[in-house]
Write a structure and sequence with these properties.
heterodimer; A: alpha/beta; Rossmann fold; B: mainly alpha; 2 domains; two-stranded antiparallel sheet; 21 helices; 2 strands; about 0% strand
Chain lengths: ~240, ~525
């Protein structure tokens, strides 16, 4: 579903991402772990077509992000670490806006909005301006807007930050369901317990370079993911 | 602790001098001096205006034995200026302060926090009040031989008067807070109130000479009215002339009023500062969903952004209001205007259609909707960048909004001018075409400028709107283009008729529009994608 081949991205002299290669297959929840400034967000933004990159290739469902960014973007949904949404819109206006952009038919969007807003318990707040939302509510709205067009691939940057335990649980269930239905999820997180329990595969990035990847069992072996991560971080 | 808090409050109040909101950094020493000098110059300019006003009033009133009326009238203006300048500051620093939670977590009584905040408001009010108080006192010292006591009381007066300003600001700020929490469309209300204020300001400014003359014509009558309706100001005026008892009465009145206000505020401060006074929550009721095309959805997004930001509306959409007002004025006074202009122009009366087109274009330039539109994406830019929508379409939505909001009022004004100036239909159609091309050109110029000079790192929309070079260039650039075309016509008027000039201008501007649109669709879109 998502293939990253030899991705390199530099900011001035600094190599934020250095020759990174990953493959996320349909049905997989792929966790992306690394210290602050390791290059996770740069990789994620490159995969979403928000950031350009110096070399390498990113394909989504076999389509090149460099050559056909719009086709790629129509297949994916992105949820950033800090959901800066349009404060001047109400929740429902924002959801309708995103649905219009992705061409979601009226009955389909209505059903999705109803289901997801009820599940995340923000239905009552949909008439309110987004500027009045808390961080968690904005995060919930961003998640609903990401799911509204039934994307094949969901890319998320720290999706659990700001969510209450119930919403976190619900998101985990939805992530699993999406992948069981043939979708794929690529997400970054600092919560190693979540990654260990939820992911099928994990990649660890350090200073822009991939230092470990594979199934959770392959990466952690007999120890915990936390021990492996800390050990790899300490290695020079 | 209190000293530290006071220092923090003063830093906050005067942050505009040393802190550059545009880049989020402190200004250099040179920058601080330059910025402070600029403001001093501006204050000085206003001061000169009030100096002239004071000069006109002081001597005649003092000679008539009504020196107190001079101080009362100038005091009233000073209070109005101080309250206007600090009422919104009062609202934001008392009820909207971002550090309220932090300060309330400190081991400081809430009453002292309130007092520290009021100090900030006090100094802000004093600053505005001094613009009038300084010339008032200077003129008095120059025109009338004051006693030593009068000099001392005069120098102390602004400090007392500023307490009165503070009290009024607190009361008005309280009402602003209440209205703000109840009103649904705050931005529209802010724009309307601002426009009403601007209109009132210009009206009073235009009539100030007549007002002063009517006061001087019947000072006794005015004096009696002030004495009966505004008694504290009567006492203040007497005090300023050296009457210690009156001065004390005025000071006591101000102190009592402030004390009562402070008591009310201190009792409610904690609940106001911690409670969310927002309007009652409106529960969502599901309605049948309607779909829109991508183009319409993007245009609606731009419109909501425009209507959701009063600063954007006021600074970049003033033409929307000015043009219909001008259209009505033309309908009423158009015939007179046409006659006057025809008389002035004499044998060159055939340039009237050109003047009509130029006037509309000048007002069209007051709409600079596209010029901050890229910057206003701010932190939300990731959204449009992550959507499967070509950047070109996003930019076209910005252009469309500018065109829709400008073309309609401009066409209205143009039609009114054509009727008033009795311009023939073919000529009128040509004028309309020229205006449409000009509006399109200005929209393109504004967008191109903002693509070249975007500022996405802001927390307050006033930064990309009010402190933007793009907006300034677009505004003055529009006027410059009109004036350049006017100058060009003066150079070639011996060789070509106004009609030929207008057709040529239309063609030239249209070609520039095509080239600019092509640049926006290609290079501009590329810039937008990589911002």
């Amino acid at each position: 579903m998502l293939t990253i081949s030899h991705l390199t991205k530099t900011y001035g002299d600094k190599r934020a991402v250095d020759d990174l290669s990953l493959h996320i297959a349909p049905g997989e929840i792929y966790g992306f772990i690394g210290h602050n400034g390791a290059g996770k967000t740069t990789t994620i933004k490159s995969c979403c077509g928000i950031l350009g990159f110096d070399s390498g290739e990113i394909t989504i469902d076999g389509v090149s992000m460099k050559e056909n960014p719009l086709v790629c973007k129509s297949k994916l949904a992105y949820i950033p670490d800090n959901p800066d949404l349009y404060d001047f819109m109400t929740g429902i206006q924002y959801l309708n806006f995103v649905a219009d952009v992705f061409g979601v038919p009226a009955d389909e969007r209505q059903k999705k909005i109803r289901e997801l807003a009820d599940a995340f318990e923000i239905t009552d707040a949909l008439a309110e301006a987004i500027s009045s939302y808390s961080h968690g509510m904005k995060q919930k709205l961003a998640i609903i807007s990401a799911l509204i067009h039934s994307p094949k691939l969901i890319i998320m940057d720290e999706p659990f930050v700001g969510l209450d335990p119930k919403a976190s649980h619900l998101l985990k269930q939805l992530m699993r369901k999406i992948c069981d239905d043939g979708g794929a999820i690529f997400f970054s997180t600092h919560v190693l317990e979540v990654a260990e329990k939820l992911c099928d595969k994990i990649a660890i990035i350090k200073n822009g370079k991939l230092i470990q990847s594979g199934t959770v069992e392959e990466v952690k072996g007999d120890t915990s993911l936390e021990d492996v991560f800390l050990e790899l971080e300490e290695e020079k | 602790m209190i000293k530290a808090l006071f220092k923090k409050q003063m830093l906050e109040v005067f942050s505009w001098v040393y802190f550059d909101r545009k880049n989020g950094k402190n200004r250099s020493k040179g920058g601080i001096i330059g910025y402070a000098a600029l403001y001093l110059l501006l204050f000085g300019f206003l001061g000169v205006f009030f100096f002239q006003m004071a000069k006109t009033l002081c001597k005649p009133l003092s000679d008539a034995g009504l020196g107190w009326l001079y101080f009362a009238l100038m005091g009233l203006i000073a209070v109005a200026m101080g309250v206007f300048g600090s009422v919104f500051n009062t609202y934001s620093s008392l009820y909207k302060a971002k550090d309220n939670d932090f300060l309330l977590s400190l081991p400081v009584p809430s009453g002292k926090i309130l007092m520290i905040r009021l100090c900030g408001v006090y100094f802000m009010g004093l600053m505005y009040e001094l613009i009038i108080a300084i010339p008032t006192i200077l003129v008095y010292f120059i025109s009338v031989k004051p006693t030593v006591l009068s000099v001392v009381l005069n120098l102390l007066l602004p400090l007392v008067l500023s307490v009165f300003v503070l009290t009024l600001s607190c009361i008005l700020g309280f009402f602003v807070a209440i209205i703000s929490s109840k009103v649904k469309r705050k931005n529209i209300i802010t724009v309307i109130l601002s426009l009403v204020f601007i209109a009132a300001y210009y009206y009073v400014y235009a009539k100030s000479y007549q007002i002063i003359q009517s006061i001087l014509a019947a000072p006794e009558k005015v004096g009696n009215s002030v004495k009966s309706i505004l008694y504290p100001f009567y006492r203040m005026g007497l005090g300023a002339e050296g009457d210690v008892l009156s001065y004390l009465i005025f000071t006591l009145m101000v102190a009592a009023l402030f004390f009562v206000t402070y008591l009310v505020l201190s009792r409610s401060f904690l609940s106001i500062a911690t409670a969310n006074k927002g309007a009652a929550k409106k529960a969502y009721k599901e309605k049948a969903a309607k779909t829109s095309s991508i183009e319409k959805a993007l245009l609606l997004k731009e419109l909501r952004n425009f209507l959701g930001c009063s600063v954007y509306m006021l600074n970049c959409g003033l033409g929307i209001v000015m043009m219909p007002i001008a259209a009505v004025a033309v309908l009423i006074k158009g015939a007179d205007l046409s006659a006057i202009l025809s008389e002035i122009l004499g044998e060159h009366a055939n340039v009237l259609p050109l003047l009509a087109a130029a006037a509309v274009c000048m007002l069209c330039s007051m709409n600079d909707i596209t010029s901050p539109s890229v910057s206003l994406e701010g932190k939300n830019l990731w959204l449009v960048q992550s959507f499967p929508v070509p950047a070109k379409k996003v930019l076209h939505a910005k252009l469309q909004l500018h065109l829709i909001l400008t073309v309609i009022p401009a066409a209205l004004l143009a039609v009114c001018l054509c009727i008033a100036f009795k311009i023939s239909l073919p000529y009128a159609i040509l004028i309309l075409a020229f205006i449409l091309i000009f509006i399109f050109l200005m929209a393109l110029i504004g967008l191109a400028l903002n693509l070249k000079m975007p500022n996405l790192n802001w927390t307050d929309p006033t930064v990309p709107v009010k402190q933007s070079l793009c907006v300034m260039i677009a505004l003055f650039g529009g006027w410059a283009i009109v004036m350049a075309l006017g100058g060009l016509y003066l150079l070639v008027m011996k060789f070509i008729t106004p009609l030929v000039f207008l057709i040529t201008a239309c063609v030239v501007l249209a070609v520039i529009c095509v080239l600019l649109l092509k640049w926006i669709d290609t290079k501009g879109a590329k810039i937008f994608e990589t911002l």
